[in-house]
Amino acid sequence: MTAYRQNQPLCPTCSQPLESLDTHAPQAVVDICKQCGGVWLDWEDGDFTDLARQIPPVAGRTIARGGLGDCPRCNKELIVEVFRDVAEVLRCSECAGAFVPYASIGKLSECTPAADMVEQPKGFWARVIGALKTKFPT
Ligand SMILES: [Zn+2]
Ligand SMILES: [Zn+2]
Question: Does the predicted model carry a pTM greater than 0.70?
Answer without folding.
Answer: no
